[in-house]
Amino acid sequence: MTTPVADAIRHLDAAAPTDARAVSRRRRIAIGAMLVAIAVLVGVAGATTPSFLTFDNLLVVIRNASITGIVALGMSFVTISGNLFALSAEELAILAACVFAWLMHAGFGLAPSLGATLLMTAAGGAVQGAIIAVGADPIITTLAFGALFRGLASLVTGNQNIELGSRAAVWIGTGRPLGVPTQSWAFILLTLAAWFALDRTRFGRQVVLTGANRAAAAASGLRVGQAALVGVTLLGIGCGLVGISAASQFGLAAANLFGGLDIDVVAAILVGGIALAGGQGSPIQAALGATFIALMQNFMLLHDLSTGVRMVVVGCLVAAATCAFHVMQQRRA
Amino acid sequence: MSRRAALRDLGVRAAFMLAVYLAFAWRLPSYYSVNGIAALLDGAVLTGLVAAGIGATMLAGEFDLSVGSLAAVAGVIAIKLFGLGLVPAIVVATAASAAFGALQGLVIGVLGINSLVFTIGTLIGLRGVALIVAQQNTVTVPIDQLADTDAISLRLLGVFSPLSLILLAVLVLVGLFLGYTRWGREIYAIGGGRNEARAAGVPLLRPIVIAFTLSAGLAGLAGALLSMRSGSASPLGFDTVLLAAVTTCLIGGIALSGGRGNVLGIAVGLFTLRFFITGVASLGAPYWLQNLATGGLLILVIAVQLLPGLLRRAGTQPSAA
Amino acid sequence: MRGIAKHYGSVAALQGVDFTLARGEVMALLGENGAGKSTLVKILAGLERPDSGTIELGGHPVKLRSPGQSLQAGVAYVTQELSIVGALSVAENICLGGDSRAIWTAKRLADQVRPHLALVGLGEVDPAMPAGALSLAQQQLVEIARLLSRNARILILDEPTAALSDAEIEKVKAVVRRLAEEGRSVIYVTHRLGEVFEIADRVTIFRNGRSFPPVRVQDIDIDALIEHLLGRRLDQMFPARSGNRGEIVLSARDLIAPGLATPVSFDLRAGEMLGLAGQLGSGAAALVRAIAGVLPRERGTVLLRGRALRPDSLREAIAHGIAYCSDDRKRDGIFAVRRVVENLTAPSLSRITVGGLLSRQRERDIARRLASFFEIAAGRFASQAGKLSGGNQQKVALGKWLGTEPAVLLVEEPTRGVDVGARAEIYRHLRALADRGLAIVFASSDNQEVLGLADSVASFFRGRIVRIVPTEQLDEAALLRDVTHPAALGVGAEP
């Protein structure tokens, strides 16, 4: 290219913004900020709260972070694919716990119970994903299914506690291979798997592109429906794992087994910096967000902050994170 | 949708409502006894008030997920302020909710953020506020003053009570507002075509703030009224009202995308849902089954709305998808 | 308007333009894309601010810094993107944003808007009916009615008839005449020369950022108009054509689709570039979309390599070797928030997948190959596609299709929003692609582009094909005539 026009163009292009790392920048900032925040929180907590750095407490924190994290990983696929949130995660997890407990109680054995429960949660996710894939609003759909799952949980348990009565199951919930809780092993492995799936597999790339620009993805010949379907299904499996773990940990299941999971997961996604519009972000951000939220909850709990105060804090965090990232996005544009 | 098509649409929904009513009335004499009808009306108050409010936000193309928590906060505040008197306490609680709603609308409108996600945040936060104000407990009206709340449970004109009269009044007022005032039509405009409305010169802030004030205020009113009637308020209560209100709006023809639907439809949807739920309960289903039934009904409505689009695509129409 | 100048970067969109408009006059604005007429009109509408120059309305100098101020001054701008809310009634749409009274009853609004509706020829329309039920033309008229109700004295109509049927066009023309009789002034931006003669009093022609003094329509004829419109451009922008032709790759037989009024047939060989010349609403874009499967085919067949192509979806078309690039890359051409690499490999994921996993190596190879072919600097790979210049974005939008090794490339407006230098590059690349055996069909409203790049030209006007001929048989004047005011409409000999 030697014409004057071509040279002029080179100059024009040179003048155009060339941040070579632009895409990763937001992610790097988010991940970096998260790590710093976590470090600061741990530091502050360690300094101000005597009971924080005890072995038992750290165990609790790590377990909670893992539980929130496993669901947050699944949720990150939903968000990154452009489908915002699935508000039925907690209910599906509870249903999984109840179904698992019921199966175990009925004597079906560990492996079949595990398999059937996970299959059920995958199916639960898949049904929601299919409906969303053909155009239904994700929030409303998952809201409805949440009620369905909660009702089914009551149905399965007959509104009573079901005891597992299995020692093997108890190990799943409370075991600590090499000193690390089972849930945390699962969390770490799943984080790596999720990151790998999104970053290195064809399916992951489809999810990301669908979230980035659904019309362009369709125009490029990608199956845009698949992204929603598989995303919510993966979330379902994550919920299944968490439900099984909870049932095993407590040795029983009930329709009101735990609460606040939905809140913590949404907060984890937002605080982790995953863009609500979709098409950006990594499951690692969700994992770090979940860790931060779990630490924060623990910190507040140790300082005797009531449930109400803790909820207000998390709620403000969610609202503030939404505003902050939105404003940042606007400023960039 | 032309006028005639809109009327036809409403007619179909009303027919469905009637069908549900008859299906249960056939088995349940309570559906046509005076007491039974009064109970049906009263049972609709909570969902109806909240639906009218959340419907306004949906018409504007937004969404207010925090209505349940708002109702809980309002309920707790009202009970706590019972000393001021029955009516003043309700008024204060409602006003506080409305003020918060206006604030929400302001933030959402000025920043232009996703109302869905923002109200998830306020949903959580407000629940916490309810817990704090109630000090983690269910608050109750002192026993000796309980009689003062009886006014709320009066029976007027046979089937009505103050609550159901308020519901009807609210539905009429909101319907008139949305249908016949400039501000109400602006809400439809920004919901029916956000960019087009803005290009035509419609201010975005005002209709958004109005819509969220309505949804919060009505949710607060509902929470206060119902807490007064039962004489107690739990900070964790009203957690199923969001689902019921959304289902009501969707059955009634409010479009999620915004700009379509009206209060008449909400009323039809309201009673369709109530006939169904009350019927299911009266036939002996346990309490927790009601929420499941609502969820199932919502899924059905979603599926039915998707059907025309799916059939069209399955036909020989090529598309870019 | 005096001495109006406007620069975008180093590009002068307007250079010292003077423009006058008399009361009760219809002034037509003519000029090819980029000549400056849209810029001038946007300045008048308050959407852009001039770098220099003054504006006077009714003898008083005014500052039009925003659309609001422009409206206050009585200037109304009607664009292709209507601001009609379908869910609201016609009357409500007209009163939207303007009526300041609190209570809106259907009756009061209807009475209020009836005179305005009558003025635009919609007297028969029920003001209470939903605006969404009206046709596009009627909606356009409703928008005009709204602006009239706000006392617009100057109306700017930007290509108002582009998407309308013949009957609807008559309506619009009647409205324009009536408005002028009322004493209002109309600026009528169009590319259809026939309309200029039918309704305009005077015409101002734009070329390369400057305007000719306005001429009275009765003092000029078509040939003179065309002569004025032809501009001089850099000929070295276009690469030399080559004669390599392969076998017939794509055939259309009696194709009819929405936007095409008469059946279209043509054959396309490997290595050949077919340019579809035509303005907005001419059918050129419709033909491209019909072949791609984006628009439904009502009749006729398309054969790809001899076999009938019957895609029900874009996915199938792509699988068979069709590559389609729309005219709006922001909407569906690029993934703005993703990296260039990911953009380039989006349609060809199966080619970089090994056992379900993406091969970084293959991805890099393909991306590098595509990027080097399209001269996208490798340093850009990690940038967000949305941050690139318009030219580079278009290269990405086009280039990504190479990875699928298509047989046919269908493009709409290949260089829209691309600066002059990048255009030359894109033309060179497209020709190189053709030389490697790709068959290319591109629709363009830029006649220069079609004449410079294509081997054969099909000209379109209002949904009908005028002729298909080898490019040598056409000159600029003839093509301009074809797409703005053809003498006779019919299908010409195939190349």
Helix content of chain A: over 70%
Alpha-beta content class of chain C: alpha/beta
Number of domains of chain A: 1
In CATH, the homologous superfamily of the largest domain in chain C goes by the name P-loop containing nucleotide triphosphate hydrolases
Roughly how much helix do the residues of chain C carry, as a percent range? 25-40%
Relative strand content of chain C: 15-25%
Spatial extent as radius of gyration of chain A: 22 Å
Using the CA coordinates, give the radius of gyration of chain C.
24 Å
Model regions low in confidence, pLDDT < 50 over at least 5 residues of chain A: 1-23
Inertia-based shape of chain C: globular
What's the CATH topology name of chain A?
ABC transporter involved in vitamin B12 uptake, BtuC
Q: Largest interface, counted with CB-CB under 8 A?
A: A-B, 53 and 54 residues
Question: What is the β-strand count of chain C?
Answer: 24
Q: What is the CATH architecture descriptor of the largest domain in chain C? A: 3-Layer(aba) Sandwich
Order of helices and strands of chain A: HHHHHHEHHHHHEHHH
- CATH first level of the largest domain in chain C: Alpha Beta
Q: What is the CA–CA distance across the termini of chain A?
A: 33 Å
Would you write up a description of this structure?
The complex is a heterotrimer of chains A (about 325), B (about 325) and C (about 500). By secondary structure, chain A is an all-alpha fold. Chain A has a single domain, classed as ABC transporter involved in vitamin B12 uptake, BtuC (Orthogonal Bundle). In chain A, about 75% of the residues lie in helices and about 0% in strands. Chain A has helices at about 5-15, 20-50, 55-80, 90-105, 110-135, 140-155, 165-175, 180-200, 200-210, 215-220, 225-250, 260-270, 285-300, 305-330; strands spanning about 160-165, 250-255. Chain A has a two-stranded antiparallel sheet. Chain A is globular and about 55 Å long. With about 325 residues, chain B is mostly helical. The model of chain B is unreliable at about 315-320 (pLDDT under 50). With about 500 residues, chain C is α/β, with parallel strands linked by helices. Chain C has three domains: about 1-230, Rossmann fold, CATH 3.40.50; about 235-320 and about 405-495, Rossmann fold; about 330-405, no CATH class. Helix content of chain C is about 30%, strand content about 20%. In chain C, the strands form six sheets. In chain C, strands 3, 7, 8, 9, 10, 11 and 12 form a seven-stranded mixed β-sheet that branches. In chain C, strands 18-21-22-15-23-24 form a six-stranded mixed β-sheet, sandwiched between helices. In chain C, helix 4 crosses helix 5 (about 135-150). The longest helix of chain C is centred in the middle third of the chain and has 16 residues, at about 165-180. Chain C is globular, with a radius of gyration of 24 Å. Mean pLDDT of chain C is about 85; it is low at about 490-495. Chains in contact: A-B, A-C, B-C. The interface of A and C includes residues 3, 202, 208 and 217 of A.
